[in-house]
Amino acid sequence: MQPDNFTIVILAAGNSSRLGKPKQLLTYNNTILIGHEVQTAADSGCNEVVVVTGANHDQVATAISSEDVVVVENRNWQTGMASSVKAGVEFAMEGQSKGVLIMLCDQPLITSDHLKKLASTFTTNPDKIVATQYESVKGVPALFPERYFDKLTTLRGDQGARQLIADNGEDVIAIAFEGAALDIDTESDYRQLINLTSS
């Protein structure tokens, strides 16, 4: 299997309730958060990039309309993250993808080099889940093989990919990347990001 034979699914459907405004549109790195994540994904050498929108579909879709991405609207976003995972994976299943790499829209320190490491490891271990390890967590970004697609589409509520990783530990290869620990949920998180990247 070639390392580019996978789809990246960026989950960007939430309503950013703790932040009070769409986190996807926060200014970052001469673009916006979702634009930065899309570029990071595109630079990884993947087959295609899918952005799953929801709460602020029109704004987010318009903001990335010039990018080479597929936008999938999750009209059931209020039921929890699982519905966004399902929407993205079902789209990938329609194509020839042998794997799905799930990312969040609010982990801005993730690099394309880290995604390439996940992909390279997946290429030589095509039946394994290749996850990101930070602190004591094994989570996303994570690359799931085709044999896990059905399980990904049957998650429920706020169950995300991390739950599937935890439930299948014997099938997981973890790649350390401490930058994954920073996600943007609050104004304080955003200030921390700006301080980190401007120093």
TrEMBL record:
InterPro entries with a match to the protein in the record: MobA-like_NTP_Trfase, Nucleotide-diphossugar_trans
Keywords, comma-separated and alphabetical: Transferase
Record-given protein name: Nucleotidyltransferase family protein
Keyword Membrane (UniProt): no
PANTHER family registered for this protein in UniProt: MOLYBDENUM COFACTOR CYTIDYLYLTRANSFERASE
Keyword Transferase listed: yes
Lineage top rank: taxon: Bacteria
Every MobA-like NTP transferase domain range: 9-168
Cited Pfam families: NTP_transf_3 (PF12804)
GO molecular function, one term: nucleotidyltransferase activity
